[in-house]
Amino acid sequence: MDPTPAVAPAARRCRRVPVIERETATTERVSVPAVSPCLILPEPVRSETNGLIVPEREEPAVHSSDRDRIVLAALVFAVLFSQVLLYPGVATLVETLGADATASAFAATPLDASMWFLVAEFAAYVSFVGVWGLVSDATGRRTPFIVAGSIAGALGYAALAAVPTVGSIPFEGVLLLRIVQGAMTIGAFSLTMTMLMDLEGGHGRNMGAAGIAIGLGAALGAPVGGQLTAVDPIAPLLVAAGLLVCVGGLVSLVDDRAPDEHRSARALVDGIRRRPTLSIPYAFGFVDRLTAGFFALVGTLYFQETFGLGAGTTGLLLACFFAPFAVLQYPMGALSDRIGRTVPIVVGSVCYGGGILLVGASPSVPTAAIAMAGVGVLGALVAPATMALVTDLADESERGVAMAGFNLAGSLGFLGGFLVGGTVAGNYGYDLAFLVVGGLEIAIAVVTVPVFLRLSLEPTDQFQSGDRENA
What we know:
two-stranded antiparallel sheet, disordered C terminus, Major facilitator superfamily MFS 1, single chain, mainly alpha, Growth Hormone, Chain: A, globular, transmembrane helix, 2 domains, two-stranded antiparallel ribbon, 17 helices, about 475 residues, about 5% strand
């Protein structure tokens, strides 16, 4: 047999190979002169006896997209962690910040004061998330706006922490500071998620990484926030400020992959309007976040009043939901890349709503913890597929606005969770509040089934591109 390998046909890459030496099966050394000044190889050339003759350059062990995915997920985690730190001890915090029923109509009861403190932040989210997305897409930049939003958000948290020291700020002023802090923080959060959308590697994977970050931030933020509140009600604010400073410093480690297209705000908005199918993930994002807002406020107070729990134990009970919700998001997102978005979103939402009803019907702390864990698993199935669907449907030059729209819907959902849940629970009791919120989750899934069937949102080349890239 002639030991000289056949020359590969011309292809994409070209390498100069003057002489190749190899050993045959009989250990005889053979020199193979170059056929031309440049041997063109589409792939590594293999002989029958020794495998690779001219090995391709080895790819780095960790692709830059993988590294950036980890960093961005860590930043999303930090922003969510800082936000959730305040939730378990919110009633104690607003009292420390000056909530007084005799001095403010927004503080008639501890529930009212807590509700308005949370509503103020999400009202700011709703008002400003679209602005951040428009500016980012119009300029083709993400990083500088994330830095600005995170640093300004840190200053907002620090200003709130200083309120007890100043001592003369009415509760309405506290709510105004909360609005400013929320308006800045949402920029860091939404645009960091948009940077994840810009990465290669599969939309489900990227949004699964975002989901893990969100879930872990909530899972760890709740118990840590409860423990910090037990030490000092102001401590969660100080930790949140420090974390946002870190976000502003670390985001520069990631390449800014925003499409370098400068478009007007009107053109961006018109582009989103031409994609009415985005209303599907927006609707699910609204209801999913509504349930999260419901648990953050009403669920916290429900566990404390019904089972007599303190802030620390309440945080641990909330963690029963957020722990599986966090750790399962990446594999669930990858699963949706393979099987499509319909089953995870529609079937998962129906089961998720049923799980919420079980939490409200739980007679004891152990059964409530088990039900919360089940809801967390189902939430992990729904959330990354919903966020990935936004990426699937949006044009790459409009991802900032598309994700801003999703976060706008989510922020409205949080507001709905606070307002609807708080109002229903305050006037009609916790049982009806759980029924309303769980029923909404089931209803949105049932109503959208025909839409999903018409769109045939099954696995496609677009969904599975990340699988091929990472194969």
